[in-house]
# Entry
Amino acid sequence: MDRNEVLLVGRLSGAVEEHSMPSGDTVTKWRIIVRRRRHRRGAALTDSIPCVTFDPETAAVVRSLKPRDYLEVAGSFRCRVFGPSTAKIWRYEVEVSSAKPYEADLPEPDAVPDDPTLSPNGSLATLIPRQVAYLAAAS
# Structure
């Protein structure tokens, strides 16, 4: 069975943008900054992930936040294609169906344990991505 589900917890990178579409709908755009595991050389790396929503309630939640505030978003990964057939532009983004402020005392990157199972209270273990040996069985 195919699944397209995304759950991100990170920080709002900057101001939220809104654009009116020819259909009359409003698309709300923002970026969420998500920390990766500590890099092997000791530096903390981040990803800046573009997010969009067409839902007015979800947009209102995101607009109520300030840059650098933590939020949790859930949605689907999308690939959108723009432009004429001779010069296509491919954009990848998360189409968000729900968003909420995230209240957490997250440790600084240096304080993240190397083994997420060693988390004393277990709450941090759910935020640290685990390596996946394979995504699907070979057929």
